[in-house]
């Protein structure tokens, strides 16, 4: 895949950049607040580079899940303001995506100028399922620019108009963020330094089946937490009470446990659980042994002994991938497991290990709990894209950028070929 450095002189060229600016927002009396600007900060360097090269930069992105038509609560206007702060230069905000306001804003751009288009998903063509339905919107986007730069790693696993179709219409290259993300994933999937541990979790084990299957020939240790852990515990014949459970996956998980034993992969499960009466910060809660979960209570975090066990299993690792909190970290009584795991990763990072936090809830958790991005080797901007890469799935947003002389793999190794996987967390109902 070509990179920005392969594009030559960009002065005066209109460059359409597909970024991932899908940040969490909070509505307050003072207006809309961005609660985590990590994706904006991650996107800014590529935009700044293009601006400094004299390009006329047209940034496009989505926010949330509007239903193919404008919805003020999903406007990118607050993102434009924050992006301007980070770039140190004003960012013009176009109040539509491919309409007259967008065209006027692009026409007014000078060399080095930056405009952010309104939410791509205000247009039904962005997420349409067929090529024909996406074509009109993709052509309208492409008509605004001379060159396309793909820098939204969090969406490269989607064949959407701004990710896939536009790249087929314009000369294209990868941005710095996508290049960095793929290079990190290559380190995880191509002869990772050992011991190699992956921490998995999230709400549903079904979301991680492909990754787990690939990991069982690659990772040395698989640490399981999050809501998905209760399906593992049920597969071992334990009572899980009212905890999150995918009963239709119990047999599959039991098969993975047997396969792991045969292949010498250590699967580490919690030894104690924080159980509560309800999914609420105010609910009464206690720590119980993993084989003593009451039938009328639910697990919402790993317990302190489990946190210590997980930290000990990571202490000698040279490569660690983590995707997903260990519990319902949004509620203070159930955040301790996630905080302990994050600290364990920070400790091995300081010892020189490669640690990768797999985006989504994991990234939000470490920042909310007071950790700096620099405490880890890499914080991914794309949880879903990372998962699909690591399970060996072809990612259309990368495949479309591929060239014959490409040196960057556009998908992870196929199952059984030595790929790595992605993880999540225990007790939280959310996954990355």
Q: Can you characterise this structure?
A:
The chain has 14 helices and 17 strands. By secondary structure, the protein is α/β, with parallel strands linked by helices. The two termini are 27 Å apart.
- Number of DSSP strand runs: 17
How many DSSP helices? 14
**How big a fraction of the residues is strand?**
15-25%
Decide which structural class fits the backbone: alpha/beta
Largest sheet, in brief, is: 6 strands, parallel
The strands making up the biggest β-sheet line up spatially as 5-6-4-1-7-8
Computed Rg: 22 Å
Taking the alpha carbons of the first and last residues, their distance comes to 27 Å
Low-pLDDT stretches are 404-410, 413-432
Q: Averaged pLDDT, please?
A: 91
- Coarse morphology: elongated
Fraction of residues in helix: 25-40%
Describe what is shown at a glance.
By secondary structure, the chain is of the alpha/beta class.
